[in-house]
Design goal:
19 strands, 467 residues, alpha/beta, 14 helices, nine-stranded mixed sheet, globular
Length: 467
Amino acid sequence: MSSRTVIRGGLVVTASDEIHADVLIEDGRVAALAATGTPAAEAFTAERVIDASGKYVIPGGVDGHTHMEMPFGGTYAADTFETGTRAAAWGGTTTIVDFAIQSVGHSLREGLDAWHAKAEGNCAIDYGFHMIVSDVNQETLKEMDLLVEEGVTSFKQFMAYPGVFYSDDGQILRAMQRAAENGGLIMMHAENGIAIDVLVEQALARGETDPRFHGEVRKALLEAEATHRAIRLAQVAGAPLYVVHVSATEAVAELTRARDEGLPVFGETCPQYLFLSTDNLAEPDFEGAKYVCSTPLRPKEHQAALWRGLRTNDLQVVSTDHCPFCFSGQKELGRGDFSKIPNGMPGVENRMDLLHQAVVDGHISRRRWIEIACATPARMFGLYPKKGTVAPGADADIVVYDPHAEQVISAETHHMNVDYSAYEGRRITGRVETVLSRGEPVVTEREYTGRKGHGVYTPRATCQYLN
């Protein structure tokens, strides 16, 4: 039995086009588009008709950076694959790429298998995996080749967190050399963790224990220094580089310089750096702990450089780094010692809406919104054009978006499994109305109609900016 859906009368917005068109969906894929009101569009017939008049019809969001059920600092991220992917769907995201973790002393395969076990049968939307490489050795390097072959085509390394995820320059260089050979993409958490640990120790010795000091010790210059070092190591290795969660003016400048030199270097930022600042980290009564993440929030003046980077394409992607810890019982582990606050913030449900607000505010265009939230992450991580666009042959991952609806973001109404919102009380314009994942309605006119297990593991090709 073939199933057909028609979405009528909306403004279809992709990274490249805006067109008033009807969309025909058949067997989970986009079958055809035709200009609204034309005989071709009128000929579309289906069991399910969705009226998108006055609305946008956009590709489902692709969030290339999430951490569901991630162990950190003696606790776990509060969202499971079930709750996290459901919240993502509510926010108009239809694909996530999560991070499987290699523990020191264990193989990449063990880490990947553990993450498959967590996700399989539990997801509301489709998902893929990156691999965190914490232990570079000859066996690990061989395993990288095998993972690329089976669709895990990106590997994350950390210049931060000594004793946990940290890799030294030699280990980073070896992994980059391997990626240069096998087509993988190295993703880098670029902060000088060795120097930061010294500053943490000194701050605590001075009695500086409040959450705001988390931002003060993780200095923007140490993000910029690590970004520069990662770029040059990648250049030596002949490998591409993707720098995650860029937060500071100085780090953007390093990426811009590298791209001006023609290097295959890419950068991502996140909504928290675009909309929040050290003012939040400084909130009294330990409330600032809600905003502890790494890289940290920066003073407001850094936001202009991030928006400019997104407009000039020196930053290409906005993902969330969704890694939620409840304020009660989890963030509170760091009362009296900011270094014990679990690093991470919730956001997988808010990204598409916040970036639409950026369109309303004049920071970016509508098409750029779709580019940085859907199309580019899909291309960056080898999912395009299956994901990230509305075009014949693409998966019918489609959002009907009401650009005029107003909403107030709040923990009381969000669907993430966390007891606070980083954007509590923020009024925004624009709201997800209906979400399809491979043609199946996951959210229907603001009602959840999805199910766990609908989402499937999606192997990825290599980065499509390098072909």
